[in-house]
Design a protein that fits this description.
There is one protein chain. The protein is α+β, with helices and mostly antiparallel strands and about 60 residues long. Helix content is about 25%, strand content about 10%. The chain has a two-stranded antiparallel sheet with strand order 1-2. Strand 1 and strand 2 form a beta hairpin.
Length: about 60
């Protein structure tokens, strides 16, 4: 999900990119890249990147 200023603008499920129903403990790179691209921002501009399978980092 992309939440600029707390408002949901973009969301994606990683399984759409991997065709796997359940995550295998890896970061959702495809979903992250899509959300950033749709939002028109670069990774370095993101304050947080979170995944339910990984510890959040900023």
């Amino acid at each position: 999900m992309l939440l600029p200023d707390g408002e949901l603008t973009t969301a994606a499920e990683q399984e759409r990119f991997t065709l796997a129903n359940h995550g295998r403990g890896e970061l959702a790179r495809g979903a992250i890249e899509l959300c950033l691209k749709q939002g028109g921002i670069a990774m370095r501009e993101a304050d947080w990147v979170c995944s339910p399978l990984k510890t959040c980092a900023n």
